[in-house]
Protein: Arginine ABC transporter ATP-binding protein
Organism: Entotheonella factor
Amino acid sequence: MNMSESASNGTMVELLDVNKWFGQFHVLKNINLNVAKGERIVICGPSGSGKSTMIRCINRLEEHQQGRIIVDGVELTSDLKNIDTVRREVGMVFQHFNLFPHLTVLENCTLAPIWVRGVPKNDAEELGMQYLERVKIPEQADKYPGQLSGGQQQRVAIARSLCMQPNIMLFDEPTSALDPEMISEVLDVMIDLAESGMTMLCVTHEMGFARKVANRVVFMDGGEIIEANEPEAFFSNPQSDRTKLFLSQIL
Ligand code: ADP
Ligand code: MG
C-alpha cells in the first residue's frame, strides 16, 4: 500500500494535477483539490464540465491518466488492492438510485456488508435497520424499490451506502431526477449526515444546500476548476465571469 504523508495531516482526498482524456477529449485539466476530514464540498458547473468524471475518478469508476489521487492515505494506482481498499471507504450516491430492483429495501442494504465485508446476516440486518431509521424509512424495509417514491428510493440508496460505513460520501446530483416535492426529504437526510461530521463531496445545483452545509463551493467549467470559495464569498462575490454567468442562470 502506498501510504502518503496526507493520511496523517487530516486530509481525506487529495487530487494533484489530475488530467484525464476520453480519447482525444481532454475532460479533466490539471485538477487540484484537497478535501480535509469532515469537510463538505459542493461542486457545481455547467453540464459537460467534468463534475461526474472527477468524482467518478475518486472511487475509480474512471481512471485518470496523469497526476495523483490519494484517498485517506491510499494512492489510486493500477494496484487492485488499493482500488478495493478505496472502494470500501468511499460511499457513492448517483442521480438514478441504482437500487437492485429484485431485492427488498433491507436486502439492498445488507448485500454488500454480507458479501463484501463478511458481516454476519443478523448483524448486517441490525445495521441496515439502524440506517433505514436514520433516513427515516424503517417501515419500508420489506418493500421492493419499485414500490417506493423517488425520494424514498434515494434515501434507501444513501442508507445502503452508509451500511458500508464509509469515511467519505460522494453524491452525484442526488436530487436532480426527483420530483420537486421530494427534493427536500433527500436534502434533509444529507444535511443530517453533514451535521454528523461525514466528509462529503456533492455535485449539486441545490444552492440552498450549499449555503447551509458546504465549507467550500467549487465551480468547474470546461474540465477545469475555475474557482473555489466559502459559500458566502462564492455567492456574493464570484471572481470569474464564467462563474457569474453560471450563477445568473441557476439562481
Ligand atoms: P458533468 O457531470 O459536469 O455534466 P461529465 O463528467 O459527465 O460532465 O462529462 C464531461 C464530458 O466528458 C462531457 O463532454 C461528456 O460528454 C464526456 N464524457 C463523459 N463520459 C464519457 C465517456 N465515457 N466517454 C467519452 N466521453 C465522455
Ligand atoms: Mg454529471
About this structure: The CA atoms of residues 74 and 85 lie 8 Å apart.
